[in-house]
Write a structure and sequence with these properties.
Blueprint: H1 3-8, H2 14-25, H3 34-42, H4 46-55, H5 68-77, H6 79-93, H7 96-105, H8 107-118, H9 123-133, H10 138-149, H11 154-166, H12 174-179, H13 185-211, H14 216-229, H15 232-235, H16 245-248, H17 253-283
Helix pairs in contact: 3-4, 4-5, 5-6, 5-7, 6-7, 7-8, 8-9, 10-11, 11-13, 13-14, 14-17
């Protein structure tokens, strides 16, 4: 937060702060100074508001500017326009922040968009979508998964099995149980892998619960096992039921440091697995 940001929050200093920000923009391209333009728009500047609306429909810039901030601003007053802007950003760039905004704005429209994209994208993006769909309203998502699981073609059933396997372990998932007995071997294999994933999450949840009270030597074992059992992006997602940070914050400092190392290593492993999977698929 800059000094100008602070001054904008006070009635007596806001006019001077707005003037300062306007002067900073003189002669400069507003898309290269999107942060300043956004701050002016939040302060009610009409010209900046119009510029932010335009920025929402642009692609990510070369100067670190990203339209998602403009999209979130637009969503306050024009959610339909914001959805259109986020949909454009997601369709063109498979941007996960855009996908998150789509799901927040309109889950009923967002979920089918994600399912369509899931069929057509690389493994790393597919896994990001699978993680995001854990947060989708369950009735909305399950309506689609049930339809896909009942499809005549094997491919939709396989996607249903993959996504069901990513859902939190604490809810029953009969659709995954039925797909584990699918007559098509590829579908059965994916469903069984999903059941294993959910079982590993369940095991890790128990380890997380026992981490604080475990003897030091055993706590180290638990911590490493947790990172082997669960996708690291879920463990360090503040909105996921598998989040680990709340427990780690209560552990001694050395556990926090090693947790970060384990997290980073596990994330590299997952990214490498995604690349290997795509390479193997290209060879098939």
């Amino acid at each position: 937060m800059t000094v100008a940001d602070v001054l904008l929050d006070f009635t007596d200093s806001a006019p001077a702060a707005l003037g300062f920000l306007h002067r900073r923009l003189l002669g400069r391209r507003r898309d290269q100074y999107a942060g300043i333009t956004l701050r002016l728009a939040e302060a009610g500047d009409a010209e900046a508001i119009a510029s932010v609306h335009s920025q929402a429909f642009r692609s990510p810039g070369l100067f670190g500017d990203h339209p998602i901030h403009a999209i979130r601003f637009l969503a306050r007053s024009a959610p339909a326009e914001a959805f259109a802007a986020a949909e454009r950003l997601f369709a063109r760039h498979r941007d996960i922040s855009a996908a998150q905004e789509l799901l927040r704005l309109d889950p009923d429209r967002a979920v089918p968009l994600f399912l369509e994209a899931y069929e057509q994208t690389d493994s790393e993006t597919r896994w990001w979508l699978a993680r995001l769909l854990r947060t989708a309203p369950r009735p909305v998502l399950m309506r689609y998964l049930h339809d896909m699981a009942a499809a005549d073609l094997a491919w939709p059933r396989q996607i249903a099995a993959e996504l069901a396997g990513w859902l939190p372990h604490d809810a029953p998932m009969p659709v995954l149980d039925s797909l584990a007995a699918d007559p098509v071997r590829a579908v059965e294999r994916v469903a069984l892998a999903g059941l294993r994933r959910r079982a590993m999450e369940r095991e890790a949840k128990g380890l997380i619960a026992g981490l604080r009270s475990a003897p030091r030597a055993l706590a180290w074992v638990y911590l490493r096992a947790i990172h082997r059992l669960v996708d690291p992006y879920l463990l360090w997602d503040l909105g996921d039921p598998m989040r680990l940070d709340l427990v780690v914050q209560q552990l001694p400092a050395e556990f926090k440091m090693v947790s970060k190392q384990l997290r980073d290593k596990a994330k590299r492993r997952v990214r490498d697995e995604a690349k290997k999977r795509d390479k193997d698929l290209d060879l098939d």
